[in-house]
Amino acid sequence: MSPEEELQSNVSVASSSPTSNCISRGTTVALKEHNYLGLSDCSSSVGSSTLSAGLTEDDKASISLKATELTLGLPGSQARDTDLNLMKNSVKLDEKPFFPLLPSKDEICSSSQKNNASGNKRGFSDTMDQFAEAKSSVYTEKNWMFPEAAATKSVTKKDVPQSIPKGQSSTTNNSSSPPAAKAQIVGWPPVRSYRKNTLATTCKNSDEVDGRPGSGALFVKVSMDGAPYLRKVDLRSYTNYGELSSALEKMFTTFTLGQCGSNGAAGKDMLSETKLKDLLNGKDYVLTYEDKDGDWMLVGDVPWEMFIDVCKKLKIMKGCDAIGLAAAPRAVEKSKMRA
Amino acid sequence: MALRLPSKVLKHILSFIDSNEDRNSVSLVCKSWFETERKTRKRVFVGNCYAVTPAAVARRFPEMRSLTLKGKPHFADYNLVPDGWGGYACPWIEAMAAKSPSLEEIRLKRMVVTDECLERIAASFKDFKVLVLTSCEGFSTDGIAAIASTCRNLRVLELRECIVEDLGGDWLSYFPETSTSLVSLDFSCLDSEVKISDLERLVSRSPNLKSLKLNPAVTLDGLVSILRRAPQLTELGTGSFAAELKPEAFTKLSKAFSNCKQLQSLSGLWDVLPEYLPALYSVCPGLTSLNLSYATVRMPDLVELLRRCSKLQKLWVMDLIEDKGLEAVASYCKELRELRVFPSEPDLDATNIPVTEQGLVYVSKGCRKLESVLYFCVQFTNAALITIARKRPNLKCFRLCVIEPFAPDYKTNEPLDKGFKAIAEGCKDLRRLSVSGLLSDKAFKYIGKHAKKVRMLSIAFAGDSDLMLHHLLSGCQSLKKLEIRDCPFGDTALLENAAKLETMRSLWMSSCFVSFGACKLLSQKMPRLNVEVIDEHPPKTRPESSPVERIYIYRTVAGPRMDTPEFVWTLHKNPEIGVSKLAIK
């Protein structure tokens, strides 16, 4: 088991990404105004199905282990290889003779090539990989005792090899701690502990401060099945569902899996039950959100104003995986309860 | 026949030179200048307590009156340096007690100070005047009491953001009734309540008191009573500002503040209720420094306060100020030189950071004297950075923390390379830079090439490869401190640029890809560097090529240090301390 599995990250870290074969970056899929992202399916289903199995981060992280993992990589990049080597003790680096005393300039210039073995070449894959790593490096305060740093880094990058036993120890340790709701990276953001502690203890009129200032931005995380990193959007910069979904479409278009072919109902802000069911049976993606109570609901059921008030997170799920989610009636009930 | 300046004349000339950088240059001219300079230097600054031995410092500067020391690396502030790493003040105090008993001032930053240490200070330096401890730990209020009671001529006692074992507020009563010399007292980081009557008496008998920073345990009533006794204060850190809202309380407070006609700096304001802010209005027009970074006050109230602060030069505030508030600052606070915006939720998961890049752009446009920025926000754009660089080429310190690791320009999805290029190129006097967001090797090529005066550079979650580190180490002419975390660097760049490391104070790298083998190699090649591998797991048990958790490399003439804990590995863990050499650099 990889340490990543135990990561308590609320990021859907998936080193899995749609295979390059399926990617057609130029493709933009027109989103319907009712917030289904009509993205067509592709073989990312291999990865995604496991992802959707549960919302636990453990499951998501386990994707990274699969040898069948589809990775988004530039042709020639060895990102895939490193995936396979994830939990191996031996590392690419071992195979290479280590650097001579004074490497020539050539080596420096080509170091980026060399390091490509570690998937360092900057491209989307690496952007995402790195992000995944950072997000997946879970620490607790002063948790420097554990080699998660290195271990978790090996998500798709190189050769960083903490040996398995150590990886396991961190695994065990992490698994025994309660599932954290938040992603933690030691010392990030770089705020002095003195300040962090003071803010925690001073009367933070928590409702006021945690609540949303009237006119400020309201960032929520948006994750998407099959995408290796997530983004944040400012809900206050949109005025209706239509704007939100087109923005999301633009943002995640690079993860679009091949053929377009958005289908679904004609654009409306509110979904009708029947249409919802139809679409859920299809292979489309569904936009869902986590509300204040921690429940996952389908986006589109409540008036926009109410939505931005309760939405904590967004997630673009595969349609078939969203079947268990709140169907319209329940969503409406909930909103009624709150109103 | 060579013309020689008589040392008396040189001495006289040197008495006008305060800057240590200049004095360092003077001491390089020739041996006699070296000798004259060293015998006249009064203020000694040691940026890394392990770079030189205390004995060597004491020997070189016999007239030393003031010593400033820094211990742990900067990233210790963010919990990246494990407890017990080092930075002990004791050996320094011991050495000074023996060799420099005329020492009057000690300033320590990020060091471990014990009560015994403090007692030694109190006992050893007869004319001790100034003790400033910043981000230090390891002592209790007993140690403070020792200083208070024994140092007859104590002028300055400041505990800034220290972690102190608080055994109660008694320490304050240890100031003898005869002590009247206090100029500055800062106990804002202590928790326990002090007896207000003790404080009142102390303040009353200290006519020279200019700076007073109270801890949150001091109530509003206490504050009022203190202000009445010390209307001459120029710097004030309030206690807790929350109290039941009685109209008399408000009036008393207002009046007390309006009597403080010399107040220039205001801080504290923990728990401040917005209703009490108007009590401060009378001092606003005179304020040059305002620290609202612990005040959970919202934008409209903040603006009401800030629009009255036309002379403000330094503003520390939380992101609750929002972009709108910063727009107001840009129009009212035209004298602003330093701005720091802290996150109210310093949390990776925070969804609600109310400031965006626009806030900083407003201030950059409106405040022509702006030269120092620390800004936390969720994401940024290249366009904003380019605007900031264009508007404020006079920036000296630019620290941007995009909280979202690897966040690209959210409008174009590109890395923030162009933006930081503009900053490096445009702000020619930039001395300190912290970068964040999505950055490729290119960004560092620009920084290496253009950031000629940058002395301190902080990097996190950036770059693609070794090339980035290579750009920095082979460029950045003035680089003194480089700290890097979570970047994909390996050994090549480090080994290739080993010589650069001797021109720098220190290099910190954590969660990168430096191997133990490379560290050993570096250590062997460069005897004047201490290469410390800070790693819980003995690197011996892993292949030499496996990366280490953290490395801290610094130049030193003191040789390997003897106080390393088990998790710090150096090549020479041997009993012989390196001979301290007179460093004629």
From TrEMBL, chain A:
What residue stretches are annotated with the PB1 domain? Answer: 217-319
| Ranges of compositional bias, category Low complexity | 9-21, 169-181
Under the heading InterPro entries, the entry gives: AUX/IAA_dom, AUX_IAA, PB1-like
| PROSITE patterns noted in UniProt | PB1
Main localization (coarse): nucleus
Transmembrane parts of this sequence? none
Domain of life, per UniProt, equals Eukaryota
Q: Spell out the subcellular localization from the entry.
A: Nucleus
Family annotation (Pfam families): AUX_IAA (PF02309)
Note down the stretches annotated as region Disordered: 1-22, 151-183
Keywords, A to Z? Auxin signaling pathway, Nucleus, Repressor, Transcription, Transcription regulation
Q: How does it assemble?
A: Homodimers and heterodimers.
The similarity comment for this entry is: Belongs to the Aux/IAA family.
Q: What does this protein do?
A: Aux/IAA proteins are short-lived transcriptional factors that function as repressors of early auxin response genes at low auxin concentrations.
Would you tell me the protein name for this molecule? Answer: Auxin-responsive protein
Organism the protein comes from: Camelina sativa (False flax)
Q: Mind giving the lineage of the organism this protein is from?
A: Eukaryota, Viridiplantae, Streptophyta, Embryophyta, Tracheophyta
Name of the encoding gene: LOC104744131
TrEMBL record, chain B:
List where the protein spans the membrane. none
The chain positions of domain F-box read: 1-48
Concerning SUPFAM superfamilies, the annotation shows: RNI-like
Keywords of this protein's UniProt record, alphabetized?
Auxin signaling pathway
Superkingdom of this protein's organism: Eukaryota
| A Pfam family hit | F-box_5
CDD domains hit by this protein:
F-box_AtTIR1-like
Q: From the Swiss-Prot or TrEMBL record, give the protein name.
A: GRR1-like protein 1
Lineage runs: Eukaryota, Viridiplantae, Streptophyta, Embryophyta, Tracheophyta
Q: In the UniProt record, what gene is named as encoding this protein?
A: LOC104737477
